[in-house]
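Encode chain A's predicted structure.
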Amino acid sequence: MVKEAKKQCYGQWNFSAGHVDEFEKITEGAIREAYEETGCKVKLTGVLPIASVDGEDGETRIMVRFTANIIEENIRFNTDYVLQ
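Encoded structure for chain A:
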């Protein structure tokens, strides 16, 4: 989990998150997002319950959250998105 730096959810703990790129497998996107937001390389180990969330913009988002093991730890992150 990461501590959010974005204005609308500043300081809240959340799952690292993002979007799947075009033609990217959902598992590849999860691994990439974990790396981008934490600096850690991970191996996915399972799936948490899938949820749909209606956004304030009227869009419905499907949330797929994974469990993972860290296989290489090198903590670093973009402070525009994640707090120390």
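The chain has a mean pLDDT of 86.
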